[in-house]
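Entry details:
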Amino acid sequence: MKGIMIVPQKKRQDYEAQAIQPFCDVLSQHGLKWNSGQKADNRIVVARNISYQFGDLRFSEGGRHLVVEVESAGGVTNLVKYWYCLREGLITGKLFLFRVFWQVTPDSYRSHRVVWDLLRGEMEKEFPEQFKAWQYSSRDLAQATEEFASLLPARK
């Protein structure tokens, strides 16, 4: 056929896997196990046939949950689902939420980040003993994993 050019497709990058790997490495270095993905052991059951993924990655121990949510775009859905779950008593213990968003430029999703910070502040006021959250760009994974590691139990 004349005039048609076929361009090979680039392999889709899995930003979530790239962002989660440093957290997995930290957990492995501490000899700890974690949950991830859409499996049954990583869900918060809301009602019959309704559940939320309990983080893209989650480490739970001793009534504490360290959760990583990776966002490839803006939005507050993952944050708000935890607000709902805390209000409904679906999550017991302390929840430490790490949001990692994929950042191309310093202004990427700035308006979404401002709203996320506002909602996070309201959640921390409502649940001061139970909820703490941070958001990091993909450019700040070293700082995010350092904060994450500081909340892990001491190595045995």
Summary: The chain has one domain: 15-150.
